[in-house]
Amino acid sequence: MKFGLRTPSVKRSLKVRTTGRAKRMVKKAVVPGYGQRGMGVVKNPKRAARNAVYKRTTFSIWDLFK
What is the DSSP letter of 35? Predict the structure, then answer.
């Protein structure tokens, strides 16, 4: 498990800002329960637990400027 600063990725940062919005709008209209809190635990509890720990033990470079 990683601790500390996450490695920034310019490629991923651009992708999430451009292609994600339209895709999320379509998925929210079609898939019931998409985008609601807690659905990750229902779908895959092991992954949700791992992601929760990762989020608490690492930080982004952008968090330093807040």
Answer: T
